[in-house]
Specification:
The protein is 51% helix and 0% strand. By secondary structure, the chain is mainly α.
């Protein structure tokens, strides 16, 4: 899809649904393409389909690779706080004919698939929650 077509479609989506930042739509579109490659889906045809949970796994991986420790903050800034929010963005892109869906796909496939804190914050927290106390040193 040409970038101008995507931009126009996102502008139309934002006129109907102002919950999410424009950047969230562009990012999720890229994340879908990443996810298809991540799961080794063919470039075209029925075998390219990703389930909601597969797509969410790919989006999580893409988000972490793009934003690292800032992933949680960036998503929240865009208004994206749950996997269902991602589902709403994906289905808005489907309604705008940017993405496609199979007849069995439904918004509920995106509901509570993973917790954002666990997905985007925990990977960067120190594993040892009780670190050894710092030793006092005398400065001369």
């Amino acid at each position: 899809m040409h970038p101008d077509e995507l931009k126009k479609a996102v502008e139309e989506i934002l006129q109907r649904d102002k919950r999410f930042c424009e950047d969230a739509y562009f990012f999720m579109n890229e994340a879908v393409l990443f996810s298809a490659e991540y799961f080794s889906k063919p470039e075209f045809g029925n075998g390219r389909h990703l389930s909601g949970p597969e797509l969410l796994d790919g989006i999580r991986e893409f988000t972490l690779s793009e934003f690292g420790t800032m992933s949680f903050s960036v998503l929240r800034r865009w208004g994206v706080q749950t996997t269902l929010d991602i589902g709403h963005i994906i289905f808005n892109l489907i309604d705008a004919r940017i993405l496609s869906a199979s007849p069995e796909d439904k918004l509920g496939d995106f509901n509570e698939v993973y917790d954002f804190h666990s997905a985007f914050v925990k990977p960067f927290e120190p594993e040892n929650e009780n670190p050894a106390p710092l030793k006092k040193i005398d400065l001369i």
